[in-house]
Amino acid sequence: MLKKLLLTFLVSVFILISITYIVALEDTAEQYAQSLGIEKSALNVISKLDKDGEFNEQEKDFIKWLSSQNKEEQFKLAFKYAFDGKITGEEIAELNLDSPQSYSPSASGNEEWAEFMPGYCIQDIESDGNYLWLGTDEGLIKFSKSGKQPPIVFTKEDGLIGNDVQAVKIYDNELWIGTADGGLSKFDGINFSNYGSDEGLFDCRVMALDVNQDYVWLGLTTGLSRFTKKTEKFKNFELPGGYTPEAGLGSSDSVAKEGMRRIFADSILIDGKYIWYGAYNLFRSNQNVGNSKKYYCGGGLAASRVTSLDKNEDYIFAGTFRGISIIDKKNLQSEIYTDVNGLRGRDVYGLVVDNDYLWIATEKGTNKLNITTSQFNYYYFPYDFQGECILSFMVDQKYIWIGTVFGLYRLKKF
Questions:
Q1: Is 157 helix (H, G, I), strand (E, B) or coil?
Q2: Is there a contact between 139 and 155 (Cβ–Cβ < 8 Å)?
Q3: What is the pLDDT of residue 364?
Q4: What would you measure as the largest C-alpha separation in the chain, in angstroms?
């Protein structure tokens, strides 16, 4: 009799412990995700949902849905939806949880995607016939657009001035490369010519570049520099201000505080006798960086953080956090587009002029703006990009190319 009572007691204790353990697994988002067998790298992102100390039903529904996705996709999906530490009702609606395999609705019938170069951080993209030149944090890469030929990687060992390639530009068969750890290189297809501190560049952290017949203009962390091709000499312009990641949308003249990074210009564009440039605020200057006109949040820009620049015959196009600005070259007036008046997504991470259209990359997908009619078409990314993952954006005759911290992605144009 005593043995029977003892056995009953032990069974009850076991059941109680099991129930307690199961409940404990659901105490946090990370524990619940772990109990459902979600992939390890995705768990690290899911843990951000626990920062507020609450585990709600929306988060639970999201994690349950995430567990139904392919293991290979779970990290990207978690990064897209959970990286900001919350799951919103809008995101739950977007996921269409009744159809768990359809996590990326499309705004067009064309869903031809391909992905390349996994593991590379694609910081810039330049088209060259059947090839792309890719700036990465591991060197310069020549990449076949078909993806059928092995990529060719160039590093410091091959003569490149630095491995952290931030900018690549082709002009008249010249390939110019800007690096954040060395300065400027020119590649003729066989040999590299390098220009850094020994040649007079005062700041060898090149963040952006543009080229014309006479000059290579460099956007740097502490100003600008103009390289004259004929003399192979730099004229440096050390300038105050810039974008500071630690300060959110940016900071102006106070960015030199200890421990804070500074980027004066990571977008630069030559337009005739003028130079357009910026990172925090947008400026138009003459060739001597004088007579500058400034655009800022509330003064021609939707936000101060400038992420991308392009042009056509009549307009300058500036991508910013919170929207795009289209600036008339004649009167220098700006028209702003945001998510309020048609832009799908809030923050712009790349834009490219393509004849009568402007292609725009945001955290929500690709926008295609008809410049004449101001009408938008949209394509949601079937991959799980957050805006901060998108580093570069390029459009050619057939494809849209998107460079990210995960690698290179290709979308057939719609």
A1: helix
A2: yes
A3: 83
A4: 103
Which helix (H) or strand (E) element contains residue 33?
helix 29-35
CB 332 within 8 A of CB 283: no
CA 288 and chain centroid, separation = 31
User: Which amino acid appears at position 224 of this protein?
Assistant: L
pLDDT at 48: 82
Dihedral pair phi/psi, residue 202, rounded to 5°: -80, -20
Q: Phi, psi (5° rounding) for residue 184?
A: -115, 135
Strands (E), 196-305: 206-211, 215-220, 223-228, 233-238, 265-271, 274-279, 281-286, 293-297, 300-301
CA geometry: angle 86, 92, 95, nearest 5 deg: 125
Name the pTM for this structure: 0.73
What the block records as the tokens of 301 is 């820009």
Structure tokens at 32: 């619940």
Q: What is the CA radius of gyration of the chain?
A: 25
Averaged pLDDT, groups of 10, the chain, 414 residues long: 47 44 59 83 82 82 81 76 78 57 32 81 96 97 90 96 98 96 96 96 96 97 96 95 61 48 91 96 95 95 95 97 96 96 91 97 91 89 66 94 91 84
Amino acid sitting at position 42: A
